[in-house]
């Protein structure tokens, strides 16, 4: 069979191009350390690398989420550490306020300290993170949690928390519901506070309220206002609605409002009987700490000239002491929850590191080059290429004339 010179050269060019491509591929593997340079090299392995890479990316994102969660929880715990210190200072201040021998000027000084404490506590309750988001407004991070009101403070957030996905099957809360710290002070189950108004003339007292019919309880606030020593009106101060009027008063007799029962009892002496204008508040046991602190501050600013004044101050001190103690317990409970969440994150980080190592090992086994094998292959390819070049150069010079004997 006769092979034309053009075909010979064309075949040679094709072979040389193939050998150069193989050498280039081997050099690329050596330089990059990757043998699976394209899906066409090994489609099955490439598919496995894609799946493992996607899983690794998701695992990495969980790690980022855990770091963000840790930052948020740590920041919240830092603020609550300040809240704890402030609560403890206020607790000591309540003890000082209960000292009946304080001079008016001393009481005024203590009242100013309470005012300062309320302001500092309000600032802590309205703390923001590094992004300017409120930390204690539940899931409404753009809403200021607490605003100052005439009776202390009002919670404006909601009862939900922002959640972060920290693992394939687990979410963790990264915000705190402010009312669980500064409000919802549960002194005792089914309990209501009875609070004499600081302006009362008489030394009459009011008991704590007890829930007798849970179906009727609305968690509203109520007031009992005396119109005479023998009659009183009841108002729902949460709605402004009048509950009843011209009720007959008997000292110590049970008074029931909205499923809550309590009683007003005459004090000792001639000023013990309620007079027109005397008022008593009945508030749910889940009190707002700002309300309790404002009550005692108001009582301290009023001179304790009469026995009624002293009774009002004693009642305010007792309520503030109970409220601060309960609120401090709330803070400690929330800090425990934050600590537990951070411990969970630490455990998940350990698992995440192990999982990521497994993914990277799988990817490496599928696509990383075997240097010894690739270098040996490259050396062989280069040797073959050079030998082919020399052989072609030698054979391409041959002709029939070159085969004739030299004379």
From TrEMBL:
The keyword Chloroplast does not apply. Keywords: Bacterial flagellum, Cell projection, Cilium, Flagellum. It comes from the Bacteria. Residues 3-139 form the Flagellin N-terminal domain. GO terms for cellular component: bacterial-type flagellum hook; extracellular region. GO terms for molecular function: structural molecule activity. It is found in: Bacterial flagellum; Secreted. One of its GO terms (biological process) is bacterial-type flagellum-dependent cell motility. Belongs to the bacterial flagellin family. This is Flagellar hook-associated protein 3.
